[in-house]
Amino acid sequence: MTFRAHILGAAAGGGLPQWNCGCANCNLARSGKIPSQTQSSIAVSADGTSWAVLNASPDIRQQLADVPALHPTGLRALPLSSVLVTNGDIDHVAGLLTLREMQPFMLFATQGIHEVLAANPIFDALNAKVVTRETIALETPFTLAPGLTATLFAVPGKVPLYLEGAEVKTDMMGDQTVGVELLTDETRAYYIPGCALMNDDLRQRLKGADMVFFDGTLWQDDEMVRAGLGQKTGKRMGHMSMSGPDGSIAAFVGMDIGRKIYVHMNNTNPVLRPDSAEKAEAEAAGWIIGQDGMEITS
């Protein structure tokens, strides 16, 4: 079987361009000078026939329409076997409301993430008679799609913005922010769209992987502050930056990973500009800058 990963959306929450943002990247995207990107999601398959979507972005209707492999094969037949969400962030769960059209699929998440969904009655629009909510324990392999085994594991992160209290721990370990190991007979891949830091456990887990889709939110930690778009750093938002001594480019050195792909990139990130020095630097370090529509196989 050939492992296939299709990037449905390469951008972080808000997409590119973000509807209310007049930053350089957003204006370039509006004018068609750089590619627009929808919000964070990938689809994966081991056989090219049955697919799983990882994170249901607010843009999922258009994302599914843009990928012929995910088009309906009959009146109400769809090659979508499951949806898995890696945290409760709005850009990863809001698309579930679009999938309310009485279409059967499995909805996989940890107990903590399912509790977040259950606490908001609007998600009851996903009729329990046709959408089965399956709770997955950490470090427990399960079948995500035919021929594709997944395992969820904790990565450093935080609760969604709308659940933050007076004090926020940005590198907590638990079932609120998870990564996904994806295994076929021949491929070991990982999907980690949100990660606050690279710890020893995560480094050991990822070593030698065939491919890793990883959090690329910001180029530098204070990027949004410098741009005049907010007061939060990447660390405060629970995300590693790409650059710097504690960034992901440095963290992945020597890990012997086949392909490293950045996803979940904020609209301010200069790597989204094809001719930027930052994109060239990331690529020189062996990284692929993910884009909507990109398919990577192994």
Keywords for this structure?
Metallo-beta-lactamase, Chain A, 298 residues, single chain, seven-stranded mixed β-sheet, 8 helices
Derived from helix and strand composition plus strand pairing, the structural class reads alpha/beta
Major sheet, described briefly? 7 strands, mixed
The ordered H/E elements are EHEEHEHEHEEEEEHEHHEHEE
- Tally of individual helices: 8
Name the CATH superfamily assignment: Ribonuclease Z/Hydroxyacylglutathione hydrolase-like
Q: Which whole number gives the mean pLDDT?
A: 96
CATH architecture: 4-Layer Sandwich
CATH class: Alpha Beta
Compute the number of structural domains. Answer: 1
Apparent shape: globular
Order of strands across the main sheet: 6-5-4-3-2-1-14
Structure summary, number of beta strands: 14
CATH topology: Metallo-beta-lactamase, Chain A
Distance between the termini: 9 Å
Account of the 3D structure:
This protein has 298 residues and is an alpha/beta fold. It has one domain (4-291): 4-Layer Sandwich (Metallo-beta-lactamase, Chain A). The protein has eight helices and 14 strands. The chain has a seven-stranded mixed sheet with strand order 6-5-4-3-2-1-14. The longest helix has 8 residues, at 111-118. The relative contact order is 0.17. The mean pLDDT is 96.
Brief sketch in words of this structure:
The chain has 298 residues and is of the alpha/beta class.
Question: Helix and strand layout, with pairings?
Answer:
Layout: E1 4-9, H1 24-30, E2 41-45, E3 51-54, H2 60-65, E4 80-84, H3 90-93, E5 105-109, H4 111-118, E6 131-135, E7 142-145, E8 148-154, E9 178-183, E10 188-192, H5 200-206, E11 211-215, H6 223-226, H7 248-251, E12 259-263, H8 277-284, E13 287-289, E14 295-297
Parallel strand pairs: 3-4, 4-5, 5-6, 10-11, 11-12, 12-13
Antiparallel strand pairs: 1-2, 1-14, 2-3, 7-8, 8-9, 9-10
